[in-house]
Design brief:
By secondary structure, this protein is of the alpha/beta class. It has 20 helices and 16 strands. The strands form four sheets. The chain has a six-stranded mixed sheet, with helices on both faces. The chain has a five-stranded parallel sheet with strand order 9-6-7-8-16, with helices on both faces.
Amino acid sequence: MRYLSTRGHSPLISFADMLLAGLAPDGGLYLPEVWPRFSPLEIANFKGRPYGEVAEIVLGELIGDSFSREELQADIAAAYGSFSDPRIAPLSQIAPGSNQSGLYLLELFHGPTLAFKDVALQILGRLFARALKRKGGRATVLAATSGDTGSAAIAALGGLENIEVFVLHPKGRVSEVQRRQMTTTPFTNVHNIAIEGSFDDAQAIVKDLFAETAFARAVNLTAVNSINFARIAAQAVYYFTAASAFDVPPVFVVPTGNFGDVFAGEAAMRMGLPVDTLLVATNANDIMARALNEGVYEAGKAEPTLSPSMDIQVASNFERALFEASGRDARFIRREMGLFAETKRITLPDDVRAALAERYAAARCDDAETLATIARFYKETGRLIDPHTAVALTAAYNLDVPEKVPVVVLSTAHPAKFPAAVEQASGQIPELPPRLKAALEGEEKCHLLGAEKALVRGFIEAKLRTP
């Protein structure tokens, strides 16, 4: 199995090399040279199997010969051994009272940091450490987070030898719980940076530092957020486990900002999984809803909302979807991504829009609707949900599909991570899981920097020089 860049100017590499690289040297994002395919019978046989077994099969095809089956088995077992639910990504039917009897939640918050990022990063961290040890040397992991990626990356990589982790988050734009999960870590190889700006500012700094080839090579820079395809690969697994539970292709409703979680659904489809539709649910930062519904991909100013992990105006993984929708036209991607970098706006060609529409639909939800959905869901079911899940559930409530088509809402975080929004909507304070108590009580360690590449680069270089 080999991997190519969406921009076409980087050599083909193995899964292990792609894992350590993160972003391609030409600025593109890696994808499989050829998508592996599972037959309908193989997919049907996933039904009822343990999550780890399905992960081993799906990831095994994408990994190729970079790791042995025994190595993959060991890392999957270790990655998911700490999850609070042995099903890893349980599928639960929503009680009657909603307008669709075939409405389900795919619970993705049973990992160490209580967010969907754990499902991928727990396995990615172990494979990353294994590949680095085999290659030798040190690695500098650089990640921008809108809330959950940072803590999940810290939980996966904190304390590992020969790895330094730098996490950038937008100051004041993550929940207190999310911030503390990052800043109270005891690991000395983790460095938290609060950026005076938005997530898009932090993400732009990350991309610009990767583009500084000499610097990136000197510190062996790599990424573990969703620009690393290994994240997408691991997230594709829960689409297989969920869809295999049904006799007809489901609709997946995905709350998304950076487009990684929903592109994992496209990855599963390209590997043979029958899916009716991938419904992209956005908050007021609706760049993806506008792109898919109107054909104009245009970034504005990120607005703070009650669902902060989605407060993003540049959806990095959309490049992967555009690459596939354009027939893997790297020249088109180079031109359009270059134009977007300059103008923050591109108009999608009709054929690309049509190709995207074969897989995706989109809906937008504001904070008032988010609160109303949290309240409604609690009234109807007695259960609490976080505001990101509520954004997706709002879209699902408004969806008009045949009764036989199941609708699966990705529930991406535990409600206790966003207690203020949940209490505002429902009057209920979510019970605090034991895993969060330490984060709320520990001493915070964080560095405040302006949203300037030079400042972040200087900070990284200074930390790497310190013994």
